[in-house]
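Hey all, quick one. A colleague (J.T.) asked me to put the adenosine-5'-triphosphate job into the tracker so the inputs and the structure tokens live in one place instead of scattered across chat threads. No bug as far as I know, just bookkeeping. Sequence used:
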Amino acid sequence: MNDVLTFGETMIALRGSGPLKLGGSLDISIAGAESNVAIGLTRLGHPVRWAGAVGDDEAGQLVLRTLRAEGVDLGAATVDPGAPTGLMLFEPRLPDLTRVHYYRAGSAGSRLSPEAIERAFAAASPRLLHLTGITPALGPAPRAAADRALRLAREAGVQVCLDVNYRSRLWDSAVAGEVMRSWAPYVDVLIASDDELPLAAPASAGSELADQVKPLLDLGIREVVVKLGAGGARVHTATGELHRPARTVRVVDPVGAGDAFVAGYLSALLDDAELPARLDRAVTTGAFAVASHGDWEGAPTRAELPLLSAESGTVLR
Ligand code: ATP
């Protein structure tokens, strides 16, 4: 049985080294919030099933080959002959500013069907379903697929983690808020940046963080986890709150920190670790991500988790 079921769009990712309009060469990899989490969890030793869709093309083959090589279960993944795999271009424009360009409208990921998710559940119920707020922004089909997943999880007693992951380029915040609020009653673990929390909180909630967290906990969400970037993270529960500062690392690429953080948090949750240990693992995997190039490439294995505590300049022979 898989510990985790997740799905969403994974694209082919091309990375330049400067302004794209000047040409030059691009590195080729894959990227997708949910598959980043899947890889992070698999590296930490958890069996994970990814049930997304790719096109019947070479880009789709790269997505599947990479996930397979990482040990992610693809038994419920779909190859859609009627649409291409999505594409994203990373353009590091300034040392601390990267532009991302998406070519994903009409992609296979935007046509993921509720039936595919039913098949993914039918094989065996996972212990946990992980969704992000990106999937419903891709179109009516993936939104219906995610709605179906939430209902199936509820029926099967599967706990649900939702990372709000708001993408302003994909949809309007009012629509995103409507969907996130309709999902909130199904969620056990809600993960968001502090500026994303208002999207999930009831429209009547005040503007202070505490005003937004309380109604979410009252809805039955067990843990509200707030990512605070270089400020670390905080978890709120019905019995209180807990903060962990970020781990000190040299930042080389901030992309993917949120997904890596989620993988660490869920890994410790699946290990039945207490809240402090969940946050500790989450800030550790988040720090690995910012200290490594790429979205998921630097995700640690379980044995590598203590490496961040090594002295600067350490060489392991
Ligand atoms: P992204 O969308 O780029 O993946 P995010 O906004 O979802 O990121 P962040 O809050 O930026 O997520 O980062 C997630 C976690 O990663 C933070 O809670 C923190 O633990 C860790 N992290 C982020 N930035 C740093 C940093 N500069 N140094 C160390 N750890 C960091």
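Adding what we noticed when we looked at it: The chain has a mean pLDDT of 95. The CA atoms of residues 96 and 128 lie 35 Å apart.
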